[in-house]
Amino acid sequence: MKCSSYDNEGFYDEVFCPGDPANPTPRPGARMLVERIESLMSGDLARRQQAAEMALYNLGITFNVYGSEEAEEKIFPFDIIPRIIEVKEWLPIEKGLGQRIKALNLFLDDIYHDQKIIRDGIVPEDIISGCPAFRPECVGIDPPLGIWCHITGTDLVRDGDGEFYVLEDNLRCPSGVSYVIENRHILKRTFPNVFRASNVRPVDDYCIHLLDSLQQLAPLIGFPNVVVLTPGPFNSAYYEHAFLAQQMGVELVEGKDLFTQDGSVYMRTTRGPKRVDVIYRRIDDDFIDPLVFRPDSALGVPGLMESFRAGRVALANAPGTGVADDKAVYAYVPDIIRYYLDEDPILPNVPTYLCRRETELDHVLKNLHELVVKPVSESGGYGILVGPHSTKQQREEYAAKIRANPKNYIAQPTLSLSRAPIIVDDHFEGRHVDLRPFILHGPDPYILPGGLTRVALKKGSLVVNSSQGGGSKDTWVLETEPDRAVTFTDEAVLPPVEHE
Amino acid sequence: MLSRAANSIYWMSRYIERADNVARFITVNIHLMLDLSVETASQWMPLIVTTGSGKLFQKHYGENAGTQENVLRFLIFDEQNPNSIASCVRAARENARSVRQSISSEMWETINRLHLSARRASTDDAIHEAPYDFLEEFKNANHLFIGLTENTLTNNEAWHWIRLGRLLERADQTSRIVDVKYYFVLPTIEYVGMPYDNLHWAALLKSATAFEMYRKRYQRIAPKWVTEFLLLDREFPRSIRSCLIKSEKSLHAITGSPIGTFQNPAEQQLGRLRSDFDFVRIDEIIDFGLHEYLDTFQSRLIGIGSTIFDEFFAVKMPGQQQNQSQSSGAAAAATTEAATA
Questions:
Q1: Spans of all domains in chain A
Q2: What ipTM did this prediction achieve?
Q3: What is the pLDDT of residues B120-134, one digit of tens each?
Q4: What is the four-CA torsion angle of A255, A258, A259, A260, rounded to 10 degrees?
Q5: How is domain A353-413 classified at the CATH fold level?
Q6: Under an 8 A CB cutoff, do B112 and A60 touch?
Q7: Model-level pTM?
Q8: Which residue has the higher pLDDT, A497 or B283?
């Protein structure tokens, strides 16, 4: 297959340099991959793509879509062309993420204790008190090791100039890491030799690091009992919950499997109650304890917060972390980093207008057609207005919503998101991508090399969320310059290909 | 082990075994009907009656609808029948999905593939017409699953729950395979003991993959011996007695109490049932009435199932009751729904 005509159409492309569409030139890190693809027989690439999809199907790597009536389980669409990040691009990202999470943890600890940052006038008081994710119930709590947010999945995007920006911090229950690991397994089968020669940083040890950082939270010394708490098989990320529990070798529990007694948390086993020390919870704050948060929640464990408060059980992430990934707080993160670390932020924010400020509201309303507007309280890509793709009527309706509750909205310029090629029938087409690296914060911080590359499969679309037609790609962080001396004669992992 | 996980893994195993037995039933009957087509009208209803789904079948297909086509659809693909192969596989997969962390990836992938292939088959007309190859493949996939359980799982508590589920289900299914003879109508009384009758007894043995092993032991086909083999043989892996002996071992491995003693009602009931099968003579069973004996056996087995549930799985977990009994079709369907809703 020849990549003889691939048009970047003026976007930053992850694989090809800007230039003549008739004769696309791969970026240095992608050169070997592109050569390999060009050497494949016609139809072979499509066959590899099908084999990869079949493998995902058989493994049952699926997610559930809320509100979709047909088949409740869907396969997360996967494109076999990896996104390649060279190490010199990766190092500043890694550093920047570490810096950001460190600062956000200090911020959380401050917010739930002395609130110095408010008293010093860096972050306005009402942004915190008005934030639905701020949990007064958490005030004064000292979580183990002083860490609030252990697991983060930060969304990065790359603009037309090739620079990475932080689009969103996900400090509650970020998902997607299981796809990173499974995608990698599949790509190793799909392009074994390019993979070997490319010297790609491994992602397989994520679960080892995850278990380590969870065990460190145990209030008692010994062999701590770590569990993963899931809302159950009908949750959209259930596959991942089961995957992580299995890979760590710990129990996957539902709320009804746990109960509290005399301040400690136990799980019901066939041999009676067993004490639980650390809970990696994948249930939102609202649902974890009906005695403290939503009383109608059947997913949680009554008394859990009391145990947490008393230090009898560790929760990862701690409740209340959502206040730091609030879309309004987001605008203050660069100041937060400067305030706690006395450093300049390494990873820039996307410029953000807060509709709560009158001058900025004015600007937003006047420029709706070129902005992306997001409700502060929503996630998962719901309720967003993409200005350039909207009709006049949609903008007018949206403007009314903003005026009715300006505090609930922020706006950002429409970024010219970078693109990466995906396979469409027998050729490549560019699609917009983002990147979600995963960060484990603790005494030994760990940042998963690369992360989940989400791709908007619909032509021209900017929304990469899996619930809205997004797919994924494997992400290769190259350790060094690719070794060009390798030949590909022995790549016979897939069924032999007929010559056509 | 988590009570909920133990419950799910036990039922995962039971459903797989149940689906496997339905597939056996059907294959053998297909053969039998081909042999007997001259002498008697095709008889498919006994397969439905013996799985306790007579009323449900009548409700969805009407009176006198027991044609091969209807019965096959009902037993293989009909999702309204909680004991159809498709329903059992779906239930097995739902249960497996909720205990992904307790089984190996290979086991999960096999169950997932089974489910996908059953779904694909349900819309394939060619398979509806001639399901033989599909059923063979299906049975092989079950063997693969059991093999993977043996080869990829530590012989820990989860493994014993899987074995216990499989063997209790198998004991139940074997009793139904033998009982099918009770419902099978011979053209006239003279047919008893004639070649036709022998063919049928041989078919029963084949349903339980017992024909060859039976031949080695008894050689001649005789109703009494066939019954003895399928009920009371100590070594044959599908005989009821052998299933009870091994399931008792697994139950005691789970609790840690020695065999011959009991610490809870489940052990007591299973131990008593097993020792009945150890010491009963086949003549006593026949004098008592084979059908009646099997009926009592099935009730006792259902009782043991509920006791296990109460002892190990239950306690304040509503909505977890699974499809315990095959004889209450509609109610069972409702509880299966509740368990997976």
A1: 353-413
A2: 0.77
A3: 888 888 888 888 889
A4: -110
A5: Dna Ligase; domain 1 (3.30.1490)
A6: yes
A7: 0.85
A8: B283
Strands, sheet with A272-276, edge to edge from the N-terminal-most edge strand: A258-261, A264-269, A272-276
- Cβ contacts of B14 within 8 Å, gap of 6 or more: B165, B166, B168, B169, B322
Q: Do B97 and A58 touch (CB under 8 A)?
A: no
B87-117 pLDDT, tens per residue? Answer: 999 999 999 988 988 999 999 999 999 998 8
pLDDT at A72: 58
Query: Cβ(A170)–Cβ(A154) under 8 Å?
Result: yes
Q: Which two tokens stand for residue B128?
A: 């509806």
> Considering only alpha carbons, which residue of chain A is nearest residue B109?
A59
Residue of A nearest to B110 (CA): A58
Round to whole Å and give the CA distance between B168 and B170: 5
Q: Is B79 helix (H, G, I), strand (E, B) or coil?
A: coil
* Confidence grade of residue A149 (pLDDT, cut at 50, 70, 90): very high
Q: Testing the interface with B: which of A270, A271, A280, A282 to mutate, by most B Cβ within 10 A?
A: A270
Residue type at A457 in one-letter notation: L
Say yes or no for a CB contact (<8 Å) between B4 and A268.
yes
Instruction: Count the neighbouring beta carbons within 10 Å of the beta carbon of residue A287.
Output: 18
Compute the residue count for chain B. 341
Q: Each residue of B32-59: pLDDT tens digit?
A: 777 776 555 568 888 888 888 889 999 9
